[in-house]
Amino acid sequence: METAQETIQWLANLATAYGLKLIGALIVLIIGLWVIKLILKGIRKAMEKKDMDDSLKPFLLSIIGVILKLMLAISVLSMLGIQMTSFIAILGAAGLAVGMALSGTLQNFAGGVIILIFKPFKVGDFIEAQGYMGVVKEIHIFVTTILTVDNRTVIIPNGGLSTGSLINYSAEPIRRVDWSFGIAYGDDYDKAKEMIMGMIKEDKRILADPEPFVALGELADSSVNITTRAWVNAADYWDVFFDMNEKFYKEADKHGLSIPFPQMDIHLDKA
Q1: pTM (global) more than 0.70
Q2: Is the dihedral of CA 208, 211, 216, 222 positive or negative?
Q3: Which CATH number fits domain 111-168: 2.60.120.280, 1.10.220.30, 2.30.30.60, 2.30.30.30?
Q4: Is the backbone peptide bond immediately before 58 cis, with ω within 30 degrees of 0?
Q5: Where are the domains of the chain?
Q6: For residue 106, is pLDDT > 80?
Q7: Which has the closest alpha carbon to 248: 182, 189, 175, 177?
């Protein structure tokens, strides 16, 4: 009987000693998370007012959020009477073990930092990397999200992006468009060249400087290929490329030019 009473008394003393601390710690945790949410919201608005680079916004907000939540966790544990010196030592040892286990994740974090510092691309750029092409939507701590031309969302780890080969099609304001227009053997090459130059001059999207280039590029098996190069604003690249292909197809017949196709002549000898 006395043992039961002692146990009840011990539980009562424990509840008295730690119950209020636990309630206080929960209150601080709830209020702290609410305050952190407000702080991040305020920082986001400040970033928008200062017209900060869209590439930096999600990255910085993620880091600030992690730091604030870590500080809150340490404060709550201190309120519960946990010795933070010992806790930090344990946390450091655990962090080392976790770091070794998550070396790939840390590599992605380092890659994210490198991308934000050196800026090989930014949000809104059209890039090709890791076997994918698309517009950069977001750059986060560990991954970068791109939207492909067929509207697929692709998430690429930052480690590979920071160390692998990457093509940024939006880095320069102008791009060169290349074509190879084929005409049949026997067609008037000078007339074909004059027609192509006329098509180029008619298209106001094609820049006069650098000067367009038209020359005989190859005497192929079934066609005479005319190499054509012109410079356009980066945003007009694909429209000009497809429009010129269509114009050549429609204009060739009007100018007495034939568009060849692979063919083979077979001669039979009568024995």
Answers
A1: no
A2: negative
A3: 2.30.30.60
A4: no
A5: 2-101, 111-168, 174-254
A6: no
A7: 182
- Distances in Å between the alpha carbon of 102 and those of 47, 66, 96, 106, 116? 31, 17, 10, 6, 21
Among 200, 210, 116, smallest CA distance to 158 is for 116
Alpha carbon dihedral 55, 58, 61, 66, in 10-degree steps, equals -120
CATH for 2-101 (3.40.50.10350, 1.10.1740.10, 2.60.120.280, 1.10.287.1260): 1.10.287.1260
pLDDT tens sequence across 121-147? 988 999 999 999 999 998 888 889 999
Distance CA 60, CA 206 (A): 41
Give exposure, 208-225, as e/b (b: 16+ Cβ within 10 Å). eeeebebeebeeeeebbb
User: Does residue 119 contact residue 141 with C-beta atoms inside 8 Å?
Assistant: no
Tokens coding 121:
């691309």
Look-up: residue for tokens 């969302």?
Answer: 153
Are 205 and 236 in contact by the 8 Å Cβ rule? The answer is yes
Closest CA to 244 of 177, 189, 184: 177
CA torsion angle for 121, 123, 127, 132 (degrees, to 10)?
120
